[in-house]
Amino acid sequence: xxxxxxxxxxIIVFLxxxxxIYCNAQNMxxxxxxxxxxxxxxxxxxYGIVTYEILFSxxxxxxxxxxxLVADNINDIIxxxxxxxxxxxxxxxxxxTSISILINNTDTLIITYEISGFMDEVGIDAYSGILDLSLLxxxxxSVEIVLPSVFNVSTEPRSxxxxxxxxxxxxKINNPGIYAVYVEKSLLATTTTISPPTTTTTPAPLSSITSTTTTTTTTPxxxxxxxxxxxxxxxxxSPNTVSPRETVGLSPFMIGLIIAVIVIIVLIALLLxx
Length: 274
Hints:
The chain is of the alpha+beta class.
């Protein structure tokens, strides 16, 4: 093989590899239609479940999604599934509470995980916390925070609104940003507790990557509410750090990268033999 042919092959390999990396990095922003996040949190038990749902504008095929998760204190990833219940392999990154997921043949991605430390107690039946949605800026985002009692609510900034339904407080946010949330229990309200989920785990093999399928059941108790009043106060909180479970897999993109590196090494070896 001539020296010029080797150089030409090297250039082609680098161009293909660079194009693949660019397409993979651009895929999520170009195809996300909307993000819906539901945080069901009990400040008395310091326990919550987050359901993070992403809707795509088309069916995604063999795509790696890098996604920042909401809440800093993530105890466990319960499951990562698609529109038809298929389980996807993922890697959780503890340093920045993000997740990298290999998805295929789906137009919906649902991530369910457990959290704690979302709010700190700052007084008698009063709690405050920080909700950081700034990394989702520019996207169509809808967030609900569900609390198991009737609370007086104040947020800063004040671009949120509150609903009360069957003894639950539902805080709704539609504009990504950093929010300070303060809640104080109404004096005439009773409490509904959120029980930790019971999980049943079965293995779900995906090629060379192993994931798990988890069924989650959350059972709240009934609640009776008489009346409530409203106050406005804001107090921030400081996040804690925990070590979540990690599932690491080798994606098709990484396999392609390894093959490209091997090809480059072989071509360089042939060039040196000349």
